[in-house]
Every structure is written in structure tokens, then in C-alpha cells.
Design brief:
Chain lengths: 438, 125, 487
């Protein structure tokens, strides 16, 4: 077997040194239970594995080959080749959580830089070293708000991604939390009034349907009633042109970094971004890197505030999290560094301008209404026919023309989410326009 | 005249008229190592004897601190927020945790004297 | 010689960029009143500077490819590069989570195939591939158990956990609304069966589940596992197995045969997917038939020749809901699939056997110089402690840091908590005998030095790493978590 260095001679010699006559003696503590043998395919050499998986990959319609206007929380961006190269370097790929700081300064410094970028992006003071993805990070934010405010109710906006709502509701259902979820808000009618019973109010910015709302007044209302205000950002690129959650008064901001870090990989792994205010620091979940000095007085970095974590606090920990999304945090941080302030702003402007022109063109088509007055790079169209059928039909014509809202809310089959990023040129937009005209 | 008493959980209490000052003992801080954070309750809250009232964190451990007496908190040591090292450097003076108005003075009498506590920690080792 | 590398914020500038953009035609501004008028503070680098910055930072890491990395309970085995190559195929990497299902049949088939391999290897009936990591898998398993008990009419109140457990177990059970009660471990490092029996039969009948890592965190197989399962089932409780250490037994035994009801598998340990400096991982959970209907969405069903992704509760009424947006850690699943297909059953068995052989080899080679708290055969990892060095003043931390100067990554230290000064060594099956012999020599050298007169040098180690020991106390007392330009 190509991954196993021991030879039979090694094995014999080692068994002798151990003082047993056969390998089975080392497994003597395992009860013998006779059952059906395990049946899985025979071992494959590298050629055979490649053939098998390449054949599976070939059955998928890829966004490199056909135009895609899909978003709904997963946005298709260009990932510079240098990032793909760097995250495959063994130094990053094959190291563990940096428990031994003397030999992990590379990973630790990058996470410190990442935390700084995320905090600045969200306009908040501090950030952690990443969580699994935005949906689980939203759950963690809600749980953190409950710890801080010692209240067991949370209010979820109808502008939140439906799969985030489901995740938070599901993961909160057994700890006594009352989750109030407002109805899906495609037309941006929502007006949230916290009562003061809530530990937090959670909104999405821009909303799942693409609307951009200034939440400054809502944040003030929350604070006046001793409620934390949590903002979810599924497309952090929007913050290149929009006011930050911190500027609007958010206490916690979470986000999905996947689209700017990696290819979409069918939606996983994601990258959970998490930032908050300094006074809530000791309640923040996840791994955190801090700056310090070594014995020689040189600057260095360590994992810090470990006492919040499960391996020390056990059932009283802030969260059960151990693993984060380190490699994607590296990719995200690198992309931020490659873009810089100027590039990040330009990329955001470009996404917005492209989406704006597309929205204008598509809303001219008879039978199609644009539901958004405001949006960043994704908007909602209302159609006079079944959107799910239309999307299937467009896929047959080699076009991924948008995400039907009925995939999440089956009774809303007249709504289509359309996202346009720097990956979609004019030709692709014209193709979409023609398909929607049919 | 003030009196100091101790608990098996390594807290000390000084009773001065109607106020009790509470902290952790020198022995406790030695066992914990460098204290990096102290989570204190808030003024106005009520603590209950033998229930958790605070958490002391060192780099790699978190330890619960139990209330030696029941009562209402009238002051907390806010210097610990910025200087947790006071717990190491001056555990039985500047590193105090909270001041309370005890509910039941009799509870104080059940605690150990200095001599009893010194014997108690000798016995554990 | 490793070069110093300043922070990105010290070398970058807001005018630099490594990405070029085409000119932008005008378009209507639809941002409303939220357009920003402040800067974010993101320094940029040109592409060559980016390459240099991250390459230099990479050189400060010790990593599995270059060094022995015997981190106990973390299973730092070799990460095959064909897995990376296949996960990066555009057919897998360039697909969107919400494409119409008939355009991603290959992706669904890949997940379905992996799910079947995992159920076959564990003997279980169904898989949830949502969980993003081991701890997330535990949460998935325990929520499923709670949902099943609730459906039966009583979710119960208590989850039992042995004192040797990983901290994620109690943290997870608490998140599911359970009270945790600890079951002691006996002198042999195994669950105290009498104590467990007593709790189940004498206390209130309110135990929802028992969470057990097996092989356990002492590197031992809980040989009474079948008795444990029977005791639990008689008491109406479920048996959750933490599969973090499944590498020791994969292919050799099926957890279902022992009476396990649910178990998570860390793909980033057992099935060779990379750890990536702390993630992303994946922690799929396998379930028996009783629990399967309650597991979270999404699921995949095969319908003739096509595969269908079930995403909403309308189609699966008992599911407790959803744990994560999208479709699981897909690209990690692809890597694990490539690994299992490469190994086949003979390969998985041989890997488990070699992992156990390597650990026992280190046990016998080191047992005369380090203290073994639980003598006798171990599984994939061997647990020592520093008690034989107490008089020298040298402790577990010093041994770990000294190993760095020998070119190795340290082992897991001070875990499990039930052993004072624990030294937990997991060599894995992908290390050769030569590497193990060198490691033994390195430890012998360190212990000899510890017992010598000038052992104080060991307190200064590592000397050859990029940094000396770091001040973790100050880091935790006055946390500096972000860079500020004015400092």
C-alpha cells in the first residue's frame, strides 16, 4: 500500500521487540463479534482513483464552463492563482492547530493579520480566528448574546438567509431558547421593534433578497432595551462600498468568507467571520490569537484566552468548537492583502455597477418586476410564471440563471434571485436577458 | 475589631462590623499560577453560601470561587479587571474580590480560623 | 535560517494592489443611503510581495510533510496529494450549492458513495454529512438523540461522560440542554463499569445517553464495550461513540456490532484529509436505524439512476432540522472518498494495524525511561507522564519544547487531564521504523539530559525554533487581538 512505509520485515522485527507473536495480540482487548464482513471496493492505484473521481466530476455542470448568476449566500468570485498555490503548500496545509507557538508562528501571524482585517472590515474592535461558516457563526452569536444578556429569546429578521434561520432554530431548540422568526421579507416591508425580552436581534445586510437597509435606528432601539444587535453579512465584498455593521451600531457581526477565499466547492467548507466589541471579548467563541513576546523580547503570537474553551471549561465553555477554518482564513486574508483598500473598493464598485446594469435591463422585460430599490450585487425579480421550471429550462440551455426562492420557500415560486459579479461579462448578461425574454 | 476566617475551598473572609471582604488565599493563588482574568459578580447581586460567585482564570485553567457566606454585594474590586496579577502579588490584601453585607453572621462562625486553615492545607499534602 | 517578516500592516499600503481591473462603465447607484464614506484600513501588496510575505511566514511552521508530528489524539498522518488534486477538479470545485440538482448529479453521487462506504465500514444505517468538524458531529449526534427521545415522549435530563473524555463531549451535551454527570475511570484507565451500572440502576431513570471515546484518550480500548452498550440499552439510554480515535480500529471491527447507536468520524484524522493549520475539517455522523429518521438535513436519496438532495422538512418530517447552510464540507468529503477508494478494506486494516504497531513499538522502547501510568498493550497512541522526572525539576512542557530542537513536533501534552503531566504520543501508520527509532533516541537524549546536573538548559528550549518560549500570561492578561497602526 503506497501510503504505508512499514515493510513486512519491519513489522516482524517490531512485533518481536514488543514481545508478541502476532499483530492480533495487540488487538486482544477488542471483543470478537462475528458479523457480516465489511464489503467495500478493492484498493485502487492512483490511476484508478483519478479515473473514478474524474468521471464523477465530469457529470457536473461547472461554473467555469457555463455562465452562472447564482448567489443566495454563495458568490462566485475570481480567486487569484497565487492563493490556490499558497494554500496547497504543506507548511499551511499539513500543520495542526498552532498549539506549539514556537514552531507555528507562520499560521499564528496570519491569523492575527486575519483578525485585524475582519475587525476593520466589520468596523468592530476585535475578531476571532474564524468559525466553520456564517450559519454556524450566527448560531454562535445568538448563543453568545444569551450568555451576555442572560435572556433566552432571540428575534430573527425575515431578511435572513433561510438556511441560517433553520440552522439557528435547529441548534437552539433544545436549550430553552424562544426563537421568533419574522416572515420572509422579499419586498423589504419589515419593521423590527425589539420588546426588551430578546437577548439579541439578528438581521442580514444586504438582506437575503438583496435589500440594503440602514440599521442605525434599529441598533439604537436594541441598545435602549438592553438587547444586542447582530448583523450577518453573506457577501463581505459589499463592505467595500457600504457602511460597516459597526458604524451602524452592531455589537456582533458575522459573515461568510468563502466566496472571497476559495472556489465554491458545492458550498463547503465555508469560512465563518466573527467580530465584536472589546467589552464582549471574554464571551467570544472560537480560537483567538494574541500578540506577545518571547524570552528574548521578540514579538510573537499565541493562541490566547483558552480558558473560554471546551478543553478547560468543559460543559461551561463558551462553545464546543475546536476546529476552525484556518486554511480558508489564510486564503481570505491573502485575498484582502492582494486587493488592498483600493482593489477591494474597485472590486465592490465593479460588482455593484454590473449588477445595477443587469437589473435595469432585466426589469424592462414584460412580466418581470424588480423588487429592489436598493441592492449590492444581487436582487430579486418577480415573474409572472413558475420560476423553478424556468430555472430548470435555462439549465438545459447551459445557463445557471439564478436561484429560485421556492427552493427555500416552496410557496414563493414567482421569485428569482439573480447575482452578478466580476465573473459575468456583457455577453453572459445578454444571454440571460434573452433567456428571460422567452 | 476585624477577624479573618477561611474555607476549605481556599477563600478568606474578613468581617468588619457589618461588612465582609472576600478573596482567595495565598495557597490558592500559588496553586493556580499566574492569574490572567477574574470574572466577578456585579454590585447589587446576592450570593449564596457554597454557590459559585466568581471564576479565576490562569493561562490554562479556570477555577470556580464559591461564596463563603451569603449576602448582598456592595462593592467589587474593579482593579482586578486591568490588573489580575494583584491576585498573585497580594492575594490577601489588594487582590480582594468582593465586599458583601452578610445575611447571617452565624455563617461566619462556622468557618476555619487561621490556625485551622494552616493545618488544613498541611494535611492535604 | 528563517527571515523575520513584519506584519502585513507594516509593509503594505492602501495604494498597492495585486489585482488589475478593467475600466468600469457608469451605472446607476442603487446603494441607497448606506454608501460608505470612510476607509476600511486594508493595506495591499503587489503580487511578488504577496508571494514573499506568505512564503516567509510559511517557513516559520513545522508541518507534517517535513517532520514527525506525534500529536496524540490528533492523528497527524500523511495527506495524499492525489486527494488534493481530485478535490480541485473544476467539476467538484467550481459548482454552486444551489445549482439545479440535475446539474450536480456527480457531486451528489460522490457524497452518496462516501456515505455508503462510511455506513459499511461502521455497520451503521445512515449518515449525516453536514457536520463541519468532530465537535460539530458530536452536536449532530446528540441533537439527533434528543430529537428521537423527545419523539418517544421524554428527552430525559442527563448525559453521562467518563472523566477521561475530551472537553468537547461535556460542552456538546450542555448545548443540547443536558446536565452532565461524570463517570470515574478505574486504575487501568478504563470506564469504571460498577460506577456506570450503579448510576444507571440506582439513580433516577433520567439518562439520555453515554458518550464514550473508544479507543479512549488514554490510548486504550474499552474492552467492556458490549457490556456498556447492554447496560445503556436496558436503561433506555443511547450509546454515543466519539470516533475521534477510529483510526486504530477502522476496517477491523464495526462499531455497530458493539451496540453503538451513533458515532462521528473525523475525516481530518482517520481518513487523511489535511488539518490546514486548524481546519477546515469534517465530522460526518453515522446512525443506527432507530436514530436515522431524526438526523439533520440535507440527505441524499437514490431514485433509480438519479440522486436527490432532500433539503426541507416537508420531505423528511422527523429530522430535527439543519446544522449548517449548504451541503456539508463537500471538498473535504471528496478527499476522504479518494482515500477510502485508494485504501480499500485491506489498506484500511493494514493502516489500523500499523498505527497500533507503531504506538506499541514506541511504548516498549520508551517504557524504561518514561513512566507508563497504564502499563500493557495500547492502541494507536501511548500515554506516558513525567512522574519519573519529578526530582529533576524537568516536566512535560520541557520535554515537549526540547523535542522541537530535535526537529520533531511535540506530542500532545497535559491531556488527558486524569493523568498528571500527561505525554500522549500518536505516531500514526504513515511513519517508518527509522523515524520511530530516531524519535526514541531523541527522547532518550532529552531524558538523560534531564537527569544530568546541567539540566536547566532544557528550561530554555527550544533554541533552534523561530521563537523562544512565548509569554502566554501577558497575552491572556492584556489581550492584543488586532494590530493598531498607532502603536
Amino acid at each position: 500500500m503506497r501510503y504505508l512505509p512499514l515493510t513486512n520485515a519491519d513489522r516482524e522485527e517490531m512485533l518481536k521487540d514488543i514481545g508478541v507473536s502476532s499483530i492480533s495480540e495487540l488487538f486482544k482487548d477488542i471483543p470478537k463479534v462475528t458479523t457480516k464482513p465489511i464489503e467495500i471496493p478493492e484498493p485502487k492505484n492512483e490511476v484508478e482513483v483519478e479515473r473514478k473521481l474524474t468521471a464523477l466530476a465530469a457529470k457536473n455542470m461547472t461554473t467555469t464552463k457555463i455562465p452562472s448568476f447564482l448567489g443566495a449566500g454563495a458568490y462566485h468570485h475570481h480567486i487569484p492563482a497565487l492563493i490556490d498555490y499558497m494554500i496547497e503548500r504543506g507548511e499551511f496545509l499539513t500543520s495542526y492547530t498552532p498549539y506549539q507557538p514556537e514552531v507555528s508562528q507562520g499560521t499564528l501571524q496570519i491569523l492575527f493579520e486575519f483578525q485585524t482585517q475582519v475587525a476593520r472590515l466589520f468596523g468592530l474592535e476585535i475578531a476571532n480566528a474564524s468559525l466553520y461558516d456564517a450559519s454556524t457563526a450566527t448560531f454562535e452569536a445568538a448563543a453568545m448574546a444569551e450568555r451576555v444578556k442572560k435572556k433566552k429569546k432571540i428575534l430573527l429578521s425575515g431578511g435572513l438567509h433561510p438556511q441560517i434561520v433553520e440552522t439557528v432554530k435547529s441548534c437552539m431548540q433544545f436549550n430553552g431558547t424562544v426563537c421568533s422568526v419574522l416572515s420572509p421579507d422579499a419586498e423589504n416591508f419589515e419593521n423590527i421593534e425589539p420588546t426588551g425580552e430578546e437577548a439579541c436581534v439578528i438581521v442580514q445586510y444586504p438582506t437575503f433578497f438583496g435589500h440594503i437597509n440602514d440599521y442605525s435606528i434599529l441598533a439604537e432601539k436594541c441598545h435602549a432595551k438592553n438587547v444586542l444587535f447582530v448583523v450577518v453579512v453573506m457577501e463581505p465584498l459589499a463592505l467595500g462600498v457600504l457602511k460597516s455593521p459597526g458604524e451602524m451600531g452592531a455589537d456582533i457581526a458575522v459573515g461568510e468568507g468563502m466566496g472571497l477565499a476559495s472556489h465554491l466547492n458545492f458550498g463547503g467548507p465555508g469560512l465563518g467571520l466573527f467580530a465584536t466589541k472589546k467589552n464582549l471579548m471574554r464571551n467570544m467563541p472560537g480560537r483567538i490569537v494574541g500578540k506577545t513576546k518571547d524570552l528574548d523580547g521578540k514579538t510573537g503570537f499565541v493562541l490566547t484566552m483558552a480558558t473560554r474553551e471546551q478543553h478547560i471549561r468543559r460543559e461551561k465553555a463558551t462553545s464546543n468548537i475546536c476546529t476552525n477554518s484556518g486554511l480558508l482564513a489564510l486564503a481570505f486574508s491573502m485575498h484582502m492583502a492582494m486587493l488592498g483598500e483600493k482593489g477591494f473598493t474597485k472590486l465592490a464598485e465593479s460588482n455593484h455597477a454590473r449588477a445595477s446594469r443587469l437589473a435595469e435591463e432585466l426589469s424592462k422585460i414584460p412580466g418581470i418586476t424588480l423588487l429592489n430599490k436598493t441592492f449590492f450585487n444581487e436582487f430579486t425579480l418577480k415573474l409572472d410564471r413558475s420560476v423553478s421550471a424556468l430555472v430548470e429550462k435555462m439549465a438545459g440551455h447551459k445557463l445557471l440563471g439564478g436561484v429560485p426562492v421556492s427552493r427555500f420557500y416552496p410557496d414563493k415560486d414567482d421569485l428569482l434571485l439573480v447575482a452578478r459579479t466580476e465573473m459575468n461579462n456583457t455577453e453572459e448578461s445578454l444571454f440571460l436577458r434573452e433567456e428571460l425574454k422567452k | 475589631m476585624s477577624q479573618i476566617k477561611f474555607t476549605k475551598e481556599h477563600e478568606w473572609v474578613i468581617l468588619e462590623q457589618n461588612t465582609a471582604v472576600i478573596g482567595i488565599t495565598n495557597h490558592a493563588q500559588e496553586q493556580l499560577g499566574d492569574v490572567v482574568f477574574v470574572e466577578l459578580p456585579q454590585v447589587g447581586e446576592t450570593i449564596v453560601k457554597d454557590k459559585q460567585m466568581a471564576v479565576v482564570e490562569s493561562v490554562k485553567a479556570a477555577s470556580e470561587v464559591y461564596a463563603p457566606l451569603s449576602g448582598k454585594i456592595i462593592e467589587v474590586n474593579s482593579s482586578l479587571a486591568t490588573s489580575p496579577e494583584l491576585v498573585n502579588n497580594s492575594p490577601e490584601k489588594d487582590g480582594w474580590f468582593i465586599k458583601i453585607t452578610p445575611e447571617n453572621i452565624q455563617e461566619f462562625d462556622t468557618l476555619m480560623t487561621k490556625e485551622e486553615y494552616d493545618n488544613f492545607i498541611k494535611e492535604i499534602f | 535560517m528563517i527571515a523575520e517578516e513584519p506584519l502585513l500592516f507594516e509593509i503594505g499600503s492602501e495604494d498597492k494592489t495585486a489585482v488589475d481591473f478593467p475600466p468600469q462603465p457608469d451605472a446607476k447607484d442603487c446603494l441607497g443611503t448606506c454608501r460608505k464614506n470612510t476607509k476600511i484600513g486594508l493595506p495591499g501588496l503587489s503580487e511578488p510581495e504577496t508571494m514573499r510575505h506568505y512564503t516567509r511566514l510559511s517557513q516559520m511552521n513545522i508541518f507534517e510533510d517535513s517532520a514527525f508530528y506525534p500529536l496524540g489524539s490528533c492523528t497527524m498522518k500523511y495527506n495524499p496529494r492525489v486527494n488534493e488534486k481530485l478535490a480541485a477538479l473544476p467539476g467538484f470545485s467550481e459548482i454552486h450549492p444551489f445549482q439545479p440538482q440535475n446539474t450536480v448529479q456527480g457531486a451528489l453521487e460522490a457524497i452518496y458513495t462516501l456515505s455508503n462506504l462510511l455506513t459499511e465500514i461502521t455497520g451503521m444505517k445512515a449518515v449525516s454529512f453536514s457536520p463541519a468538524a468532530g465537535a460539530h458531529g458530536e452536536l449532530c449526534g446528540m441533537m439527533t438523540i434528543r430529537a428521537a427521545l423527545t419523539h418517544k415522549g421524554n428527552p430525559k435530563e442527563v448525559v453521562l461522560i467518563p472523566e477521561s473524555a475530551h472537553g468537547t463531549n461535556p460542552a456538546t451535551a450542555a448545548m443540547c440542554g443536558y446536565r452532565i454527570e461524570t463517570i470515574p475511570v478505574n486504575n487501568h484507565g478504563l470506564v469504571d463499569i460498577q460506577a456506570l451500572q450503579k448510576r444507571l440502576s440506582e439513580g433516577e431513570k433520567n439518562v439520555a445517553a453515554f458518550m464514550l471515546t473508544n479507543p479512549n484518550t488514554c490510548g486504550l480500548f474499552e474492552r467492556n464495550i458490549i457490556t456498556i452498550a447492554n447496560m445503556l440499552h436496558e436503561a433506555g439510554a443511547f450509546f454515543y461513540m466519539d470516533g475521534a480515535n477510529f483510526n486504530a480500529i477502522m476496517g477491523l471491527v464495526k462499531p455497530a456490532d458493539f451496540g453503538v447507536d451513533a458515532m462521528h468520524i473525523n475525516l481530518h484524522k482517520t481518513f487523511s484529509t489535511p488539518h490546514g493549520g486548524g481546519g477546515p475539517g469534517a465530522g460526518p455522523v453515522v446512525f443506527n436505524a432507530e436514530l436515522a429518521p431524526f438526523r439533520p438535513l440535507p440527505w441524499i436519496e437514490k431514485d433509480g439512476d438519479s440522486y436527490r438532495l432532500l433539503e426541507t422538512n416537508e420531505e423528511s418530517m422527523h429530522s430535527f432540522g439543519r446544522m449548517k447552510a449548504f451541503n456539508g464540507q463537500f471538498s473535504i468529503l471528496i478527499r476522504a472518498l479518494a482515500y477510502i477508494l485508494s485504501m480499500g478494506l485491506p489498506g484500511l486494516r493494514q493502516a489500523a494495524e500499523d498505527a497500533v504497531l507503531n504506538a506499541n513499538y514506541l511504548r516498549v522502547k520508551l517504557q524504561d525511561i518514561l513512566h507508563l501510568p497504564f502499563p500493557g498493550t495500547c492502541m494507536h497512541e501511548v500515554l506516558f507522564d513525567d512522574s519519573s522526572l519529578t526530582e529533576t525539576g524537568i516536566n512535560t512542557l520541557d520535554i515537549a519544547k526540547s523535542l522541537i530542537d530535535k526537529g520533531d513536533h511535540p506530542m500532545t501534552i497535559y491531556f488527558p487531564l486524569i493523568v498528571h503531566g500527561a505525554i500522549l504520543i500518536e505516531p500514526t501508520e504513515t511513519e517508518s521504523k527509522r523515524v520511530l527509532d530516531e524519535f526514541v533516541a531523541a527522547i532518550k537524549d532529552i531524558v538523560a539530559k534531564a537527569k544530568s546536573e546541567n539540566n536547566q538548559d532544557l528550561k530554555q528550549t527550544p533554541l533552534k525554533a523561530f521563537r523562544k518560549r512565548l509569554d502566554e500570561t501577558t497575552a491572556a492578561r492584556q489581550p492584543i487581538l488586532v494590530h493598531t497602526d498607532d502603536l
